[in-house]
Amino acid sequence: MVNTRGAPTGKRRLQFKEKLVGKGHSADALLAKLKTLQGELARLDQDDVDVGSLNGVRSELVSPSVTLHKDKGVKAYAACCLSDILKLYAPDAPYLHNELKDIFEFFFTTLEKGLTGTNVPYYEQYFYLLDSLAKCKSVVLVCDLPKADELMHRAFRVFFSLARKDLVKNIEMAMSEILCALVDECSSIPQDVLDLIMAQFDSQDAGFRLAAAVCNSRADKLQRYVCAYFTDAIVAASAEDAEGGAEELKRVHALVRRLNADAPGLLHSVVPQLEEQLRVDNTALRAMATATLGRMFADKNGADLARLHAHTWKFWTSRKMDKAPAVRVELVNAAPKVLTAHPELRKEAAEILVLKLEDPDERVRAAVCKAYAGLDFESALHHVEVEHLRKLAERGKDKKPAVREQAFAALGKLYRLALPEIEKNNVPAINHFAWIPEQILHLLLGSQETRLSAEHALAEYILPLPTKGEDEAAWTERLLLVMRFMDDDAATTLVAISNVKLARPSMYDRFVDCCVEFNGGTMDANEQAIKRRLAAIIGRIAPAYFDRSTAAEDLNAFALANEPRLYALLRKCSDPTTDLKTLSRSLAEFAKRVEQSTPLAGAKETILRLVRLVSLWVVNTSSVPTLLAKFSAGGPGGSPMKAGGREAAAQESAKTLFRALCKWCPGALKAHSAELNKALLDGKNVLLTEMALQALAGLAVMDQALVPTDKKVIDRLTKYALGTHVRHAKFAARILAKLGGGQAGKCEQVVKSIANGLAKADMGLAVAHIAALAQFAKFAPDAFEAHSEPIIEYVVQEVLMVPCPRDDDEMDVDDEWVEDKDLPDLAHAKLLALKMCRNRSLARAGAEGAMDVTQPVLKMLFSILENNGSIKEDAEDSGKVKPRMRFRAAVCLLQLGTVQAYATEIVQQFPLLAMTVQDACYTIRIGFVTKYIQLAAKLESRFNLIPFLTAQDPEHDVRDKARQFVQITADRLPADKRMLNFELIFIRFLHLLAHHPDFTSHELEVLQDMQKYIAFYVDTICNAENVALLYHLASRAKTIRDAESHAGSENLYILSEMAQEIIKGRAGFHGWSINNYPGKVKLPSDIFKALPTIEAANTILKTSYLPDEMQTWLEEHNKPSRSPVAKARVQKTSRKRKAGGHGSPAKRTRTANGARRKQDKWSGTEDGEDSESSIEDSDEEEEARASPTPVARRGTARTRAKQKKDEGDEEPQVEDGDKTLSGDDIEVKSDSDEAEETLGRGARARGKGRQQRQKKPARNGKK
Q1: What is the distance of C-alpha 1192 from the center of its chain?
Q2: Among candidates 822, 792, 819, 777, which has minimal Cα distance to 804?
Q3: Which of the listed CATH numbers 3.30.310, 3.40.50, 3.10.590, 1.25.10 matches domain 9-187?
Q4: Cα(176)–Cα(215) distance, rounded to whole angstroms?
Q5: Which of 651, 674, 1132, 1203 could form a disulfide with 954 if both were Cys (CB 3.0 to 4.6 A apart)?
Q6: What is the pLDDT of residues 371-410, one digit of tens each?
Q7: pLDDT value of position 1207
Q8: Where is this chain's protein located in or outside the cell (predicted)?
């Protein structure tokens, strides 16, 4: 386009007259001319120039000899001159179309080669050119030229290529203005230009900043083109093959997310497209659209987007019900960011997370847990409700390991973030997060796989070993802070997993010994014996892992690796005297060596957990000084601190930990014996003195060489043993009992002094004396026996036989459980007297005359159970004392039952003892189950019936504790030991139920109750391997008769038929086949007798004793019971037990009627109403949990047996198939020592777990 304007007068004319084109021009000369020309052109103003004077230079500047000159300076100045010409001629151009095309090509080439940095030659000229194009907008002439699309694409490509992260801001702005001018002026955006713009967002180059600036400035015009771009891209991707199309779709959605972050204004027309993608059948596309929209809603402008596209937001949130798990996963991944970014959208986002915690697909549940784990502290505190976090914790019981691991990790991470604020006593942080460790510990007992995940969360996030900058005191203070917000159950569980209770030397130490002997498989002698020992110890350790077979293989690999340094480190970690710093270094080195060991490459997880199973990683010897300091921080004389305070809570936690060390791991206290003796001699702080005495007593029992020998210390111990403080007297007596050498007689002197002073002592002093005597009876039996006559006479006549009267305001109830401080001194004396008698019997076990000493004790203990807590039937004892007496008597009988000679006598009245587990007082029931679990290793198999009597307990924690112990213990036992301890006892269980005090009639309601016991047993024990045996035992019950009564026989036959129906129902449900049991089972002759004749046996076998209505009920309801973790009943309306029997319904008889029932030998009591109780630690080591709350939970009312014998019974024979069985065939072999030892391993592993959680606030100010 050539200028046709005239040259008005008065305008400035160009003064430059030299020629730019011609022969003989050197580069320098031409450059000088162009500099002069450019300077003059730059000074001219568009409104005050005579453009006619520019005609000469205008033509010469586009000459190829100038624009194609080799000199960069010539081209740079020529470009500047041309840009000035275009500016002065604007809005017209003094060039033809083809000339303009060459000019802009020249501009872009010059800029592309010149603007590569600020230090290049002629940088000022290049910037001048760029700035001129931006300001005068002459670049818009490109849009009027032929092939304008190509030039426009060239401009975008050049400028995007020039964009750098260190690009000067004004250059970037100038480029942006030029490109925006092109977008504004063009009639439509060329596709290749749009592709180029979008490509900048695909890459990580700095060009996306320039692209974003252009897109944000011209969003209105670019919107529809971007929308069309994505439409075409999706269509093209759909037409490709599956793999290529998927990758293209991923790229497209990634581009949308990038655009949303940097240029959201472009996407208003794209959002409806994304919503449509949420509706397609293609799962991958729906998932990508869900993720993309989630990112958009979580962005800073997400709330506005959700408001503008409300329908899209609503439809996006509805994807929580999408049929594809992948879509739901993407939804929950986006929800936390929406939750924390926009208060307006928080409610819907929170609902998504909470709802999907219970999604049927494990991947979704795991994704939700992971989403919570990604929250920061402030977001979790202010934007997530506590109820939602507690629901997250429930996923710790999930059946899928991936979900459990993510749930525990999320809880641990959130707690770790909150801990600094909890330390500052930040109340919101405490309320929101302080409960997490307690909940993890409660969940830890759920199953073996749950335990692994929970332990990892505790060790990794909540109670990690100290870092380099953290001292030992701070580490212990952190532990006390964590325990401050725990209930007693959680604290007990924490102690259990801390390995404090691990008997040392442990089986892990023996494993290291076996590995050393094994020597990597190279042994000089006794090869087979060494291999057997190694295999046996691995068989004992493997059940500590979820996958036993894998664990066994990994432990074998550890033995084969034969790395002595690992053995040494494992021993160091297991040693209770190892301090915290040494433990941390040893653990770190152990982990590093395992990581680097090629033979252990696949066994890393198993071996690393092994070191945690042996080390004191929660509390150890380095914690002792901090714990002792807490005892010194009490009130005057060591008086208790104010309840509810932070220091008081820390002191209570310190007592829990220190007492655990004293009782189970005194080796950790060995290095602190001097400090303990000093505290003992000082004696000013009552609590510190008590703890020092208990610690020294633990050391004395562990190693007699550690017993104090200093005369001052012994004199002080004597003073405490004779004093009025019960716990001081107890532990001082224990230490004195261990004195040796020349001080051995000191113990007998103290016993004599106490025996001589008992008659004159007031009851308060008598309590302390009896506590000391109980210790002497256990640890110094000879000294005790030397003065036993006056002691026993006093205890029986002045303590046990003396009624403990009721208070004037005391209600007439017998099932209240009160705090120790609310019991009268006489009650304490009674309880300690029972303990003393028990200790005396245990100490004399195996000695001559042991039964002479123990028979009266057993009679007394059973009398207490028989008389509901009183020794005499007509005693008027306080209702506060009777529950304690019942519980102590039952526990003493369990402990005495660990001695075979005593157990033979105890089992004669076993039903009376077993029914303690159905006591009306909740604390007795849970405590009795706990004590049974602790002692189960040493008890004969008949005692294993006790946990199955919890089937109808109104509190789920009692049932669950019993069920979990049986399941874990039975699962760990070899097949033969499992049969002996849990399967063959089924026939005894049916006999026990036949004489149950509830079995007073054959009415439907009564039979339904009996059915629950059998179903509980079957659901806990029965599996595909033993179903034939259990069915065989159930059917054999109709081939014998009860040894005690005809009524018992009839009940037994009903239960036999009922058990068979239940087992068949479970077998059908699980698809098990019930084959004929091939083995021979001997039935116990102590409870059964053979039938008198073959005719009687045939009659019984052909008679159906189970009433029709019960048979019908079983057919309708015979399904497996709910899971142990199912919600328990909140309240149970107890049914009164009937003392007398009712007529039984008519039996279905094919040949003859059954014999009439006789009155059952059991008499019953009435149920009470349900109530609640909390549990407190007892001062007595052997006690189970005791409750400080003077309210009891009533369950099934306890019952008392009235034994009677049938006289004149002969020993007839019973026909079993083609063989006639004599009385000898009805015997079952007694438990072997090996069976008890094997069962004990499982029982101890389980018995050291938690005490069941209370529903009342726990003691000492803990929530």
Answers
A1: 30
A2: 822
A3: 1.25.10
A4: 10
A5: 1132
A6: 999 999 999 999 999 999 999 999 999 989 999 999 999 9
A7: 34
A8: Nucleus
